[in-house]
Design goal:
Four copies of one chain form a homotetramer.
Chain A lengths: L10 H4 L3 H22 L2 H8 L3 H7 L3 H24 L8 H18 L1 H12 L6 H25 L9 H20 L14 H17 L9
Helix pairs in contact in A: 2-3, 2-5, 2-7, 5-6, 5-8, 6-7, 6-9, 6-10, 8-9
Chain C binds a DNA duplex (21 and 21 nucleotides) through α4.
Chain lengths: 225, 225, 225, 225
DNA sequence: TATGAATGAGAGTTCATTCAT
DNA sequence: GATGAATGAACTCTCATTCAT
């Protein structure tokens, strides 16, 4: 499936030595992650890179296209990670296994690319981000596309409750997943779970507990209804 | 419970006629909600209010203190609404009734004070918001304080599963609640539920379904474990 | 007859001390006259005035509105001069007297406000001048409005040839007048007449000769037709 | 008559394939005509040509020398056209026939090379055009050189009034001619004649009327003096 | 107390020109 | 000879903040 690019760095940029490109991308990502789109300063970037202000405009048309390019890098990273995390699933894979793996993939992503995750949060909530809805839909549709069929399968096979509409199942999984990851990345969002200070094994336990709870529900089994 | 002020409008501001104060507060809220903290322009505000630039600096020390003051107004509004929505609960009130009421209170809040809700989202995710963590903790601790005892009670009485730690119960409820409201306010966050276009009765049904699902869980009742 | 303003300096500017206003207007006019609209640099202006860059933007919305304001000043100056020069004409005034006075008024205008005349030439021929056609029509319609009725009267009374359409009469007068003044202001446009180096009395003679020639024509009187 | 070059493209440029040279010249002319000297962007030109930025600097020393070269092309075109239009005149040719032909040659020139005419107008009135006076004198002397002798002849033979100095005759002819052509190229300069929308035959009639009027004068024949 | 003119750093963007390859 | 990446000064415009009145 071909993915059209919203951004387009110039040929000049494409042909840059990989090392230089990587440095520039890193500096731009850091700036956008730290400050958000609007507040990010290209002055600051060129200053930290030690390149001329005009050079940035040899590489990109304008600030917006720079931002879109950096977001493209994020999209690619996410896609790669999701595909890798689901790569070994068998067709009949279990929904909860998939959720679990995605959760850990998310945690790994945040650990490894905290700036990219920051960037994503910025896009989600900052004002006047260029093409925000388009950008979000690129990333946010993945879980839906990914979990939807698995939920359907689970419902068909009787492992997932047929009493709950598919969209609600996905909503709950997605909300839990998202919020858990947000809480992992920003301690003030973890609702008191203390995720940021957990060691890996504790984290695993917490994830498993979350999934189990989602699956089984919060009520005691005496009075469901 | 005494709430310290983060901001401190001057005496000058306090002694302003209530009507003028209200106008100024409304204009400031609108600007911060529309543009976020960083992009909000005091120039724009004084322009729309028709007051002098210097007057704002007679009322407040600087942009930050203005922002904090407006956030204080939001905090007060939230407290008021939560207290009102829980005001008639009996001590032994059911957790799910409380969640339900909170959900509807949230929806009502968004409908009635969309700008305040926007402001809150800005604070949650915008960068370089002054004293963000402090601000958030003020609002985000409320659900914990509010739901925590109810969950504990439910567990003590056997209505809530004792197998799930209290903090996880609150996390899940809070995550679902927050995400549901975010989805209601920003359609691209509703995960496909279509909340923004629902009529009131549909919304009620959706809330009830969400709560029921939380309570009963996603798994079919044949293979829980 | 009320004249709407295309430009609008702010109240701030209007209330400036007359002396300061005059200095700013003079500096702006000089810059636009020297460099044209596009090349004019507001940096240069504030530098020469010794005011802050931002101050200009307290006075005007943007470069375009600054330019339009300066052009408004020119329009006013032209109107004033034309009215003064035609103020003493009797209703049945002779066309050639009117042309003559206008010519001298133009010369006096160029002598007294060379920068304004420069500005006018810029508008006539520079590229991408904001609202050029509108600006030009403001000034260029004056001669047409002014000479038209006089020519009509002359033709009615038999002093102006009825064989030549009114529009052509006005065209020829206007072209001669314009070109003479352009030649006076820019020596390389005087077609060899050497206007720039003439003393006042020579200039008077030249004007009179031009008018007489226009009136009587270039052909010898033996072979008209 | 040898014409020195003001500009000097490098040998590299001279040895370029004629076709490539022509393309480059056309692109440069278009840019200078569209934007004027100051605003013309070499970036734009190399972009549209698809050649390297550095190549332009292999061909020319700098922007100024590029501009002067393009103007040289214009000068050559004008000379060619004037010579062709006067090529078949006999020595005793009539002044008015010459004026008429020049007028039509001008119209044809504008129709065929609108960009070159634009370029000429730019030079006439734009500011800070390099060596403007020198450039203008090259083109503006042609009419004088051309008409001067014919006027002298006409006066000697009694067909042109001896009461009017030769320089004034040429001035009037030149002014009318120039202004007519300017009005043809820029409708807002035609003084209401409506030249831009005329068909060919109307245009011919208008030219003839203009010449006849110049020749015979504007006064009625009853009271010349 | 209220005013609003003045400030000046900093924003994104453009462009002619250079020079190592 | 051709390339095109790099430069950096200059541009218009914005804004929170100050302070004399």
């Amino acid at each position: 499936m071909m993915q059209e690019r919203l951004s387009s760095p110039t040929n000049t940029f494409s042909k840059l030595p990989a090392e230089k490109k990587a440095k520039i991308e890193a500096a731009l990502l850091k700036e956008f992650a730290d400050k958000g789109y609007q507040k990010a300063s290209l002055n600051t970037v060129v200053g930290s890179l030690g390149i001329a202000k005009g050079s940035l405009y040899q590489y990109f048309a304008n600030k917006e296209s720079i931002f879109l390019y950096i977001f493209d890098l994020f999209t690619a990273k996410v896609k790669g990670m999701l595909q890798r995390s689901s790569g070994h699933e068998l067709p009949q894979a279990d929904l909860w296994q998939a959720v679990r793996r995605t959760m850990f993939a998310g945690i790994a992503f945040i650990d490894r690319y905290p700036d990219f995750y920051q960037l994503y949060l910025n896009v989600l909530f900052e004002h006047e981000v260029p093409q925000r809805e388009e950008l979000i839909s690129r990333v946010r549709l993945f879980p839906m596309e990914y979990f939807g069929p698995l939920v359907a399968l689970g419902q068909a096979q009787g492992r997932i409750s047929r009493a709950v509409p598919l969209s609600m199942v996905v909503f709950l999984i997605d909300a839990s997943l998202d919020r858990f990851l947000q809480g992992y990345a920003r301690s003030y969002l973890d609702g008191g779970l203390g995720l940021a200070t957990m060691g890996p094994s504790e984290l695993v336990a917490e994830v498993d507990l979350l999934i189990k709870t989602l699956k089984n529900g919060l009520g005691s089994h005496e009075d469901q209804g």
